Each structure stands twice: as structure tokens, then as C-alpha cells.
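Appendix B.2, paired examples.
Example (i):
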Amino acid sequence: MNNNTKYPILYSFRRCPYAIRTRMVIKSAKIVVELREIKLKDKPKDFLEISPKGTVPVLITNSGQVLEESLDIIYWALRINDPNNLLSEYNLSKKKFDELLKKLEDEFKPNLDRYKYPNRYSDIDKNSYRDKNLNYLLNLDNLLKASKYLNCNHASLIDYLIFPFIRQFRNVDENWFDCLNFHFLKKWLYDLMQSEDFESIMKKYNIWNSNDIPFYTNFSDIELT
């Protein structure tokens, strides 16, 4: 597939945690993309033809390669440019880094889905799945006792990869979450939620239509043409 557009094309959905972490890294990498914001409940035909599985994010490079997983897009971006050294190892070993991501994907995310969307499943107690995630949160809280962020004293890749899912978990019941005895985790989460990086990638954009003039952005305040 050939992509003859001016910049790589990014299909995104504003609230999806996978799309959020991808946009945060693309912003960090200072890469300009043609942003196509879509509705997951009304997926455009053009999008489904490119990626039949219908999940976001999806990126089409200028060479026409289609990347359908957030991690693939993230590492693609950071191989091009990593000015904030997100790929540096810092405090966490590769084993610990990979373990955090595996538990996020294999345990935390499935429990989160059942907690957030109980009606999609038959005969479940959503709070039991909520509570299954407390050990993961405790693990993060313990890591954050040693440094301001998960890997060092500034945000790095592991923070961007995990943060959107913790935010989504909190959003199900903010009052319950805010009463948890995880002081370090909550400060980490609130700091990231209030950061300029997060606010800039969470701006609302019009839903993409194939007849629209392309919209280009690197998720900064700079207007692009």
C-alpha cells in the first residue's frame, strides 16, 4: 500500500487509552501526523478497509506500512526521534519493564474492562474485578516511593504506557479511587493528568470525514499546513 499524503496518517479515538499513550509519545517525538479522529461506534469505511479489526490507534507510514498496535507505532516514532530519551533504561531492568507491561495487558486491562463495562459480560460482580487490580496498583505505588515517576524522577516511556489505563480505572469511580491509600500513585496520576503534555493531546478535534481538508498536528500549539 502506498501513502501519498504529506505526513503519516494516524487514526485515533480521543478517549482510548491505547490511542492516548500513542499520541503522548508522538508528541514527545515531535512527529507531525495527519490526524483522523474517528468514532468507534461509527467506524468509517476507509478505516475498516485499511484495518479490518477496527481498533485504534492505526498509523500509515509514508512508505504505506500499516501499523495496527500502539506499541508498534510508539517504537516506530521513537526510532525516528527520541529527544526526551524515553527509551533510556533508567532504574527499571528490562525484565521488570516487560513484566509491568505484561501484567497490564494480561491482567489489569481485562479486569478493567469487566469493571468499566460489566454489561458486556454475563453475571459478573464488577467490584470483584476492580479489587483484583489493587495488587497492580500497590506495585506501582511501591515503585513510586523510590522516584517521582515509575522509572526515574521524570516521565519516561513506562509512565506513558501505563498512565492512560490507570486514569481510565480511576474514571469509573473517582471518589472510590481517591480514597485509596496509595499516596505516591495518586500524586503520579494527578501530575500526569494535569501536565501540559496530556492536556495538549486530549484536545477535541472534529470527527474525520474523507471529504475534509487534511488536518496536520504534532499535538503542540503550533499550527501546521
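Example (ii):
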Amino acid sequence: MGGVPVGGSSAGAGNAGKRPNEQLGSWFARSGWSKGELARQVNRRARQMGAHHISTDTSRVRRWLDGENPREPIPRILSELFSERFGAVVAIEDLGLRAAHQSPSVSGVDLPWAGPQTVSLLSEFSRSDLMLARRGFLGSSLALSAGPALIEPMQRWLVPSPAGDPGPAETAGASRRPSRLSEPELRLLEETTKMFRQWDAQCGGGLRRKAVVGQLHEVTDLLQEPQPAATSKRLFRCAAELAELAGWMSYDIGLQPTAQKYFVLALHAAKEAGDKPLGSYVLSSMSRQMIHLGRPDDALELIHLAQYGSRECATARTQAMLYAMEARAYANMGQPSKCKRAVRMAEDTFVDAGLDDEQDPDWIGFFSEAELNGENSHSYRDLAYVAGRSPTYASLAEPVMERAVQLFEKDTEHQRSYALNLIGMATVHLLKREPEQAVDYSERALEIAGKIRSERVNNRLRKTVEGAVREFGDVAEVHDLTDQLGAKLPEAAEAV
């Protein structure tokens, strides 16, 4: 054991020169626990985590209170125990066991690009989310980053890691140690992520979000154990995919700051996995969020970062998706020539997508011919709005979006995308001053909206109907649609 106390304290950390840990002492006093009870709870939680070497007693707890710093995983265990005791997140920093500036709950997006910190931040943020997942509660403690405050830190994902920098789980001898995870267990983790992705596409982000966050937390627990390098890399890839999906689901139900935090952490995990195409996919999700929030300049910067970082290794399908998102950004910036060029690049590149289907990772499987048409048609539709409700661009959008609707109608696995494109068709017909047709598509979208849990779909449908009422409120079909909306569209659902 090299002289390290069994209780898990730092080597050589005695009481000499230490000051009492007043923060830990304050939480301990308010808990009502005895030192023996806290020691028993720490040991019990350690066994649940598989840390059977932890054996804490009353004297060890007294030394912590006197200022001795315990080793991981004890700070994390103490954080969890006090958080559960008080029904609110009590971070490791709150217990005086780590510098406050490292807190993931209050820091923005400029995070350390290092494996151990990435794992720690993912673990604490997902735990906080699980504990405080009442709608908007966690998100209200965060702030969205935009402009240089967002773009400049994200540019660092392209900076190579220092040569010889050990991964978070590559402690002495770890790379030579056999993994506690078997190959079937690793494959099951990866397959579970695919299953969560399918659920999201079918049912919306509000149905299984907490399950995804919980799975992410479990994966970060595994990353905090010694793992062989190959296993660590696969776990980081899994964590990146789960964090991106947690961000996407948060975005879908309107928790925008929470979504951005997950996206940023996903990008960090993708970098640790050495997976540049996955990193580009995460950046495309961040770009889509910026478009939604009315920040097309930021969206374009993020997409260009994604394209630059993955142009030599991403599949044709992934590159086509990035071009389509580039077109969306240009459309919202009011740059029609660049938008049209990006649309053509997306279409031309997608032609090659069928040639490397077997090389495509699961996360890009959603980008089908239907999705390509949907994105490009929305680019034309967005151009129409930016250009002062231009009928020319609305006419460009109509046949492309109609094709997307036809394809999604046959696709039972992507109901949310089907609903969003039906709403898109409704907006195109409003631009063309065809309220009856707009009502028809809105009614079809309303039927799907009642079956899935996507606040994004609900909000877009509400805004489309509000626009129809403003312009065509005297049309009988529009009046009837408002009654249907009130009767069928659910109120904002709690994130789960």
C-alpha cells in the first residue's frame, strides 16, 4: 500500500500544519450524524462502488474534520452522502476538499482539456442533473455562453494533447492490467447508447432523458477506475455519445444552458477518445442550438471548426450533414449565394454516402435522404423569412420539403423529424399565403405532437398557429385550428 492509510487519505497527510476543515465540519454538524455513522455510510457506499479497499473508522473521520484531505473516491462519496442528506447538491468544493474554481456547476464552457478533469466534470454535472432534474432547476443555475466566450474555448479541441500525457485511467501499470469489463459488457454499453438514440428519435427528448444521464454517470464511474488504454478509449467514446444525447434531449425540451454544458463536455470526451468525426457531430449539435437561439454567426464558426477538424476522416454522410448545417447558418445570416452553394455541396456529397454505409457510425444514421431534404428546405424557408417573406425562396423550399415529408411519412423511427417537417410545410404555405394548406399540415403535425414529448415541436407548432392567426384569423379553418391546439397540445412536460 506504500504507506497510504486504508481510509484513503493522501500520503503523508497528517495533522501537522493542518487547519480544521470548517466547511466539512459545518455540513457534518448540521447532518446530525455521529462520526461512527458517517464512517459506516462511507464504507457502505464504497462497497457499492466496488472500492472494497476503503475501510474508514471514527478516528479517520475526526482527522478529516481536523483538516486531513482524503483521497478519491472518498471526496466524491462524501459529496453524494451530504447531497442526499440535504436534498440539494453539496459539491466537493462545498466540503472544503477541492479548490472552488474547479466547480462544474458554476464554471462556463472554458474547461481544462485534460482527461481526468473531463471525467470529474462529467461525473459531477450528471450527478447534479439527476438530483436536481426538476424542470429548469439545474438550468437556472447556468448561463449560456456565446460569441468569443464560446468559440475560443471550442477551438482548442483541435490542439493536440501533449505527447505522453497519460489518460485519466492510465495509472501506473493500468495499460498492462486486464480490464474488469469484458468485451460483451463493453458492447452492451455501446448498444444501450444506440437504443437510447432510437427512443429519442421516436418519442422526443422528454421521455428518457434522465435514463440517459444516469447511464452517462455510470460510464464516468467506470472511467474513474484503472482501465487499459483501449478500454478507456471506448468508454470515452461512449461517454461522448451519451453526453451529446443528453445535451440534445435537453435542447429538445428547452433546457438550453444544460444542453450547452453537455455538448461542451461531450466534445471534451470525444477528444479524449481521439474521435474527430464524433467531435464534429457534437459541434454540429451546438451549431443547431445556436441557430435556434438566433446566433447564426456562432453557428457558422462552430460548423467551420467541425469541418476543419474532420474533413480527412469523416464519412461522406457526416460531411453532407455538416454542409447542410453550414447552409442553415448562411441562410439565417441572409447570405443566399453561400447558402445555395452549401446546399449543393450537401446534395453532391450525399450521393457518395451510400458507398460507405458500413463505415458510418450509428450517431450519423439519422441523416437520411429525408433529413437531407428537410435541412435544405428549411434553409430555403429561413432565407425566405430573412429576405422579408420572399415568395421566391418559399417556392424553392416547397418541393424539397414536400419530398422530406413524403419520406418521413414512411419512417416510423423518426416521428419528431416528421412532425418538424410537417410544421415546416405549414410555414411555407403561410409564406405563400395559402392558409388552408397550412392548416392541413399543422393538423397532421398536431396529431404527432400529442404522441411524443418534444417541447421543441410543441413550441414551433404554437408559433406557427399564432402566425396563422395574426395573418388569417378570419379564415374558418384557422379559427378551428386554434381550438384544436388548445385541446390537444399538452402543456410543457417535466423533463425526465
